[in-house]
Amino acid sequence: MELLSVIRRWHCRDHLPIREIERRTGLSRNTIRKYLRAQSIEPRFQVPERPGRLAPFADRLRGWLVLEAARSRRNRRTARRLHEDLVALGHDGSYGAAWTAGNGCSISNWPGASPRSMQAEHPHLMVPGRPFDGFVEQTRRVSPTCLIRFEGNRYSVPASFTNRPVSLRVYPDRLRIIAEGQVLCVHDRIITRSHGVPGRTVYDWRHYLAVIQRKPGALRNGAPFAELPAAFRTLQDQLLRRPGGDREMAEILALVLQHDEQAVLCAVELALEDGVATRTHVLNTLHRLIDARRTVVPRLDAAPQALALEHEKTASRTGQITDRLLRLYLVILDEPGYLPFNASAGALLFHLPSRLYGRTSVIITTNLSFSEWGDVFGDPKMTTALLDRLTHHCHILETGNDSYRFRASTAASKNRKDRSPS
Q: What is the extent of the structural domain holding 77?
């Protein structure tokens, strides 16, 4: 204790009288003399022993409790009966001490209880149930901005519960919002609070996805969307530069409501790496990530497939082949135009890539230039519309005019001639 060391220093080293020390510290002279005589570092108050009224009967009561613990619950004496027996022996104390001793019929809390008795008692104790869910429940009404207020701070709630009452369960470290028998969301509780600083607002951008479906423009300056993941922010910056980008971004964010958020985020990152920041590309990438099934990629020969489409129309089953192809990830159309087909079959074949546009990836292999496609389909306007769809977001790979098979056969023939003896 610092005061005790100061008093000793003044008296022993500075030789100040006790009266001067009394004036400086405000303590009485008797207290100062007691501190100087004491050899302890810190003065302690000596608590005198004050035996209670139950102390003379402690051994007798301890024996009763041992006997009562061995009996069945029905045959045990109640706390009031124990108090009456103690009064008969001369005890003049209150009923509370006897009730405390007899209520549990246990000797572990009484003087003389040993660890062995506690270990012997442990197997007979009741097994605790599930952890106690301690919370304080309150009713709050969600504001038109999808927020509830608690302790000066505001927390977001899913937009579908706007202007509706919800149950707020307050835990020491978190807030749990419940409605209609289900947990809507969980927020970390903000404990620190200052009267001079305004309260904080905790947003979760997932709670406002239903709002941006009706008002996509809220993505540009909406406070809840200021903390989007980095990939979503990069995609948003690219999409909002072109007309209709806010609507497209809202549709991409809405995928989180139907699919795993990490899968959608991975699909967006892959689309950004490919340099194709569009909703269609993100959807195709997402479907490839989610569906782990290995799908056989069909290879369609243009002329036979055109005949199959024509037979489908004749049999009044138009659209069945196209609907089946729409469920695939990739369709390969091999060599359109190497066999002639009529104008009706060309129109049906034009309808197939038009339906697949923006929904399924398509690979087309051909030896014809774009200027020769008009002769294949027979209608220049229809060919122009088809090329407009196919060349949008496409990659064109030119391999040259030399045939790979012809080069391989020529090289094999030359090798045979070189190995043959002259």
A: 55-120
Strand order in the sheet with 182-188: 136-141, 165-170, 174-179, 182-188
Q: Is residue 159 part of a domain?
A: yes
Q: What token pair was written down for 225? A: 């969307």
Q: How far is CA 323 from CA 302, 330, 351, 355, 385, in A?
A: 17, 13, 12, 9, 21
Alpha carbon distance 316, 23 (integer Å)? 116
CA distance 367 to 400: 9
Distances (CA, A) of 281 to 56, 147, 174, 268, 323: 89, 35, 39, 9, 20
The Cβ of residue 98 has, within 10 Å, a number of other Cβ atoms equal to: 24
Q: Which residue has the tokens 């990830």?
A: 329
Q: Is pLDDT above 50 for 306? A: no
| pLDDT tens by residue, 205-220 | 888 888 888 888 878 7
What's the pTM value of the predicted model, to 2 decimals? 0.42
Taking a C-beta distance cutoff of 8 angstroms, is the pair 334, 299 a contact?
yes
Q: Is residue 397 a part of any domain in this protein?
A: no
User: In angstroms, rounded to a whole number, what is the distance separating the alpha carbons of residues 342 and 313?
Assistant: 14
* Residue 49 resides in a domain: no
Opening angle at CA 294, ends 293 and 299, nearest 5: 135
Same domain, 83 and 156: no
Residue 380: closest CA among 350, 352, 358: 350
What dihedral do alpha carbons 229, 231, 233, 236 form, nearest 10°? -140
- List of residues 6+ apart from 346 with CB closer than 8 A: 306, 376, 377, 378, 379, 382
How many domains does the chain fold into? 5
Please tell me whether residue 268 adopts helix, strand or coil conformation: helix
Q: pLDDT, tens digit, for every residue of 339-349?
A: 555 556 666 66
